[in-house]
């Protein structure tokens, strides 16, 4: 993979950073979250009309720009830096790809152009606690059912030649303000139980939406209640919804990882700036070795997370990749950076008036919705069969002893030329990926028996 950004990608980043720097400062963010919609409609119009951001990853045939997940992730890195409250994630990363993947030709032609233009926003109505499972991020979504939960989830039934929905879903991203809802509903009864997606416009009869108080105010959520609401089936009854949700989940994780990296990088910049200005004992606190070490640790974590996020975005543009692992790494980096910012800002860092808590809440809120890092990593390991004898499991060495996969790391991605000897661990580097042609050291196959090449930030060592 070529890690250099193209001229177009650099232009996307530069333009967005300038616009958000002018229109989405700390005061503007706080004002936007108090808006009934949970975001600034004027900023969204500028991002949509002036930059075409909602259609960045949609095909040109439907009014989009025709870029890939990589460009969308780079754009979200900039919105993450500013903690910009926009419908970008719910509309462009969650809803639009599902319409593109499952919708009929008529549905795509009707819905995708206004989504690309930003005149229509959309939300995926899956109950918040089940969202990570539905997207196949923290558990296999073959066991996901939209009909579960204390309130019975959402049920769909045929009526008068159409469909009717009944139930509710809470913690829906932008669920209180989106112009279109993609509702996951259970249908088929017990014998033919399955989950399908339905289109529900904002003004549908029997639809009630309420904004909920969320830990992260910059990520507004709503409760969606449906009482015999008429709905349109997305695609056909034969559509395989769960694989489409899983593919969308991998891309969403890559986008979220880039967004978290942007936020972590920005909070680190602000902390370094403060450490250079705040003086104690006649000198800036940033000159003390203990403070330097803490900031250096944050820097390493942020740059490692940036590498994994960029790799995941690049891989997601070419098929299922390592989105879950990148998201785990990036959320950990953001939480670490925000926690250190609160500590190193001293008394002001603990106050409501300072912005440090907003970054910490972004990390905590995303963990609640999309899964904590340990569960994201566990799902990635299960998918690759690292500990269950599956395709990615450790091979059996001479004498029946299980050794590690020498040519792949936590992401389960094999790179050409990465060879190690018996009993060795290749470590895997930041994203668990060995460089092409990289040799780990002397000895048979590049590593002396029993040696370890180090193991990167997300590397997985063999279990003996």
State the separation between the terminal residues, measured CA to CA: 32 Å
Number of helices: 12
Tell me the overall shape: globular
Q: Kindly estimate the percentage of residues that lie in beta strands according to DSSP.
A: 5-15%
Give the strand tally: 9
Low-confidence stretches: 396-464
**Helix-strand pattern:** HHHHHHEHEEEEEEHEEHHHH
Q: Major beta sheet, specifics?
A: 7 strands, mixed
Q: What structural category characterises the helix and strand content?
A: alpha+beta
Mean pLDDT: 84
Q: Give the fraction of residues assigned to helices.
A: 40-55%
Tell me the radius of gyration: 23 Å
What does this 3D model show about the protein?
With 464 residues, the protein is of the alpha+beta class. The protein contains 12 helices and 9 strands. The protein has helices at 7-23, 26-33, 41-50, 69-82, 88-102, 105-117, 128-134, 241-277, 289-316, 323-344, 356-370, 373-384; strands spanning 122-125, 154-159, 162-173, 180-187, 194-201, 207-212, 221-233, 279-280, 283-284. Strands 1, 2, 3, 4, 5, 6 and 7 form a 7-stranded mixed beta sheet that branches. The chain has a two-stranded antiparallel ribbon with strand order 8-9. The radius of gyration is 23 Å and the shape is globular. 52% of the residues are buried. The model is unreliable at 396-464 (pLDDT under 50).
């Amino acid at each position: 993979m070529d890690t250099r950004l193209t001229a177009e990608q650099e232009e996307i980043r530069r333009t967005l950073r300038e616009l958000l720097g002018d229109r989405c400062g700390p005061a503007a963010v706080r004002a936007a979250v108090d808006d009934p919609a949970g975001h600034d409609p004027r900023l969204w119009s500028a991002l949509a009309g002036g930059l075409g951001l909602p259609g960045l990853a949609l095909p040109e045939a439907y009014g989009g720009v025709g870029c890939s997940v990589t460009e969308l992730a780079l754009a979200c890195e900039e919105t993450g830096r500013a903690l910009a409250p926009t419908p970008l994630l719910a509309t462009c990363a969650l809803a639009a790809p599902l319409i593109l993947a499952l919708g009929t030709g008529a549905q795509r032609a009707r819905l995708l152009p206004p989504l690309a233009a930003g005149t229509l926003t959309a939300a995926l109505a899956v109950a918040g606690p089940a969202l990570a499972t539905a997207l196949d991020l923290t558990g296999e979504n073959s066991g996901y059912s939209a009909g579960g939960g204390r309130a019975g989830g959402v049920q769909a039934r045929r009526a008068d030649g159409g469909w009717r929905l009944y139930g509710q879903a809470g913690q829906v991203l932008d669920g209180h303000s989106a112009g279109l809802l993609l509702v996951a509903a259970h249908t088929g009864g017990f014998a033919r139980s399955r989950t399908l997606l339905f289109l529900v416009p904002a003004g549908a009869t029997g639809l009630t939406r309420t904004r909920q108080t969320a830990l992260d105010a910059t990520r507004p959520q709503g409760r969606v209640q449906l009482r015999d609401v008429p709905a349109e089936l997305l695609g056909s009854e034969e559509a395989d919804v769960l694989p489409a949700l899983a593919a969308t989940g991998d891309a969403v994780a890559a986008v979220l990882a880039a967004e978290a990296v942007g936020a972590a990088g920005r909070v680190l910049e602000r902390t370094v700036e403060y450490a250079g200005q705040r003086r104690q004992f006649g000198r800036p606190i940033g000159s003390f070795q203990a403070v330097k070490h803490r900031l250096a640790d944050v820097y390493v974590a942020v740059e490692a997370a940036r590498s994994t996020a960029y790799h995941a975005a690049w891989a997601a543009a070419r098929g299922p990749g390592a989105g879950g692992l990148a998201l785990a790494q990036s959320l950990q980096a953001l939480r670490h950076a925000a926690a250190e910012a609160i500590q190193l800002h001293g008394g002001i860092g603990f106050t409501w008036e300072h912005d440090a808590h907003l970054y910490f809440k972004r990390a905590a809120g995303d963990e609640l919705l999309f899964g904590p890092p340990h569960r994201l990593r566990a799902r990635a390991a299960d998918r690759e069969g690292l500990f269950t004898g599956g395709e990615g499991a450790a091979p059996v060495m001479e004498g029946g002893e299980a050794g590690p996969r020498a040519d792949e790391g936590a992401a389960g991605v094999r790179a050409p030329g990465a060879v190690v000897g018996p009993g060795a661990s290749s470590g895997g580097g930041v994203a668990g990926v060995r460089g092409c042609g990289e040799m780990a050291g002397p000895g048979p196959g590049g590593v002396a028996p029993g040696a370890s090449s180090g193991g990167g930030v997300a590397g997985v060592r063999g279990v003996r």
